[in-house]
Amino acid sequence: MASKRQISHSSGIIHITKLVSFCNEIQQVISVILQTEHSSDYQDLRVDNPQIQSLQQLIRYKVQHVETMLKKKKVIPTRLPLPSYRAFVWLRFLARDEQLETHLQALKEFLQLSESTEITRFKYHQYRGYALHISMGYIPYIYRVQVKQHKMEVIIHEDFITAPLEIKKEVLIATLHGNPIARKKVRNYCSSDEVRRLERLIRSDQHGHAVSPIGTNFDLQVVFQRVNQQYFNNQLDTPQLTWSQKRSYRRLGSYAPDVDTVTISRAFDAKGIPDFAIDFIMYHELLHKKLGVKKANSGKHNHNLKFKTFEKQFSYYEQAEKYLQQFILSK
After folding, report:
1. Are residues 272 and 181 in the same domain?
2. 212: helix, strand or coil
3. Which of 43, 107, 245, 261 qualifies as a FRET site for 80, CA 20 to 30 Å off?
4. What are the residues whose beta carbons fall under 8 Å from the beta carbon of 234, sequence distance 6 or more?
């Protein structure tokens, strides 16, 4: 039985403590395993290896434990806060033998590449002599670098586990040096079919199981199909579509790229709301999906000139802007 310290919920969001920290512990265990195994043919990285069997048991136990708690509370994983959601789907992904082996092999390739002279010469001059630690996980970035206590910690997105060696090399060059050519190659790979396949595989059956897109007055699936056809030539994959838990009059919509989710304020699931108003909110969020979302302290990076130019291509742009402003002021 889950204690109050283990799980709590408010406003439809479920909180499970220590899930993210558990993932950090798993990263440390993986690091130890790779430090003690030196085979280049990867035979030592199979699940019949006692160390890896023990690791797998830890992961599976945690996944089953979380699933049991969620089942008792009659909630779904997408009700977890995003950091916990990413942690859970990553653990569930690694709980399968083939995918754990692929993860370990990919990480070993990154480590071997990082030791080659072709890569080490790219390291920042000011960090020469610092210990380099590389890990992989389901993070909201392509990669992230943190420098602290004479250590350079690099974490790379799980989507790169099946990337060719050449792309893995470019990831390290982009990470350790900030090389613009390498960054461009990495970004291009992120748009590949293989990355999209892995995203679906990592999210597994968690994708699409959030709050129903069918509201009292609007079906977000219908809204998406209408906007996708008119403005994107039906080229956008269907994201997860959901209504917000509360009627927000300040945040009308949002797009979460790490779980590919468009959320629309429940305030717009009401009689009298014109189609062009909810279509415009959907269009705005789908532009973020199409153009990409940058992590920043403000929305300026995402609502730049390019974004605003596309936004104004909405057929009822002026009417929608005027309506939404009046809608907000009237509440």
Report:
1. no
2. coil
3. 107
4. 228
Residue type, 81: P
Which residues on neighbouring strands pair with residue 153, listed in sequence order? 133, 146
Task: Decide: helix, strand or coil at residue 40.
Answer: coil
**Among candidate residues 10, 6, 17, the one with its CA nearest the CA of residue 79:** 10
Residue that the structure tokens 């403590």 belong to: 17
Do residues 26 and 105 share a domain? Answer: yes
190 in the same domain as 248: no
102 in Cβ contact with 161 (< 8 Å): yes
pLDDT, tens digit (0-9, with 9 covering 90-100), for 28-57: 999 998 887 554 555 578 888 899 999 999
Q: What CATH number corresponds to the domain at position 303?
A: 3.30.2010.10
The helix/strand/coil state of 13 is: strand
Q: What are the E-state strand segments in the chain?
A: 7-10, 13-16, 131-137, 143-148, 151-157, 240-243, 253-256, 261-264
Does residue 87 share a domain with residue 42?
yes
| pLDDT tens profile 78-107 | 777 778 888 999 999 999 999 999 999 999
Tell me 256's DSSP state.
E
Domain membership of residue 319 as a residue range: 220-329
* Lookup: tokens for 254: 């949002």
> Phi, psi (5° rounding) for residue 263?
-115, 130
Decide which of 205, 236, 256 is a domain's last residue.
205
Identify which of 34-43, 111-120, 216-225 has the greatest average pLDDT.
216-225
How many domains does the chain divide into?
A: 2
- CA separation, residue 49 to residues 39, 43, 85, 249, 285 (Å): 13, 9, 29, 55, 46
Q: Is residue 131 part of a domain?
A: yes
How buried is residue 176: exposed, middle or buried, by Cβ count under 10 Å (0-12/13-18/19+)?
buried
